[in-house]
Design a protein that fits this description.
With 158 residues, this protein is mostly helical. It has two domains: 1-67, Four Helix Bundle (Hemerythrin (Met), subunit A) (Up-down Bundle); 115-158. It has helices at 2-10, 14-34, 38-63, 75-97, 119-130, 132-153.
Length: 158
């Protein structure tokens, strides 16, 4: 997953970058499935690897992006970026090393009760009780964004 995430950033071709993002999304879904979160894994494939990537490819085709010519590498910028990335990784290492719950083992698969494994019911109840207002706001934002894309993509007749 990390390799294809790096390929998303490194690729100069936007289509190759988008396809690398699809593989990255599928890898993330496989990680969810390996953690016994089947519902989240399926939603990851359906929503992100499916619908969002179709939207990304539509935007790429709409903008008619071409390959970008390679520029000369800025040595100072590259060294500064490497220093910041190294500092971030070092800080992340120390934080995760001192996080006590992260060192506990997972319970056995058979130890769960049927009620704990009902992912769909838990996600639905959380979505429509605790997070009802943000869910409705996101729906309105997606509707406005869709209308905006349709209006912006229309060709004007002369």
């Amino acid at each position: 997953m990390l390799g294809f995430g790096l390929a998303v950033v490194i690729n100069r071709n936007p289509i190759a970058s988008a396809l690398s993002l699809v593989v990255c999304f599928l890898s993330l879904a496989s990680l969810f499935v390996s953690l016994d979160a089947y519902f989240i894994g399926v939603i990851q494939v359906l929503v992100y690897a499916g619908a969002v990537m179709v939207l990304f490819l539509f935007i790429i085709m709409l903008l008619d992006l071409k390959d970008v010519k390679r520029r000369k590498i800025n040595t100072v910028g590259a060294l500064g970026g490497a220093a910041v990335a190294s500092a971030f990784i070092l800080q992340l290492w120390f934080v995760l090393d001192s996080f006590a719950p992260g060192k506990l083992t997972f319970p056995a698969f058979g130890a769960h009760t049927a009620r704990e494994l009902d992912d769909v019911r838990q996600v639905g109840m959380t979505l429509f009780t605790t997070h009802n207002l943000p869910f409705q706001v996101i729906g309105a934002l997606v509707l406005v964004a869709t209308i905006g894309v349709v209006i912006l993509s229309r060709r004007e007749l002369k």
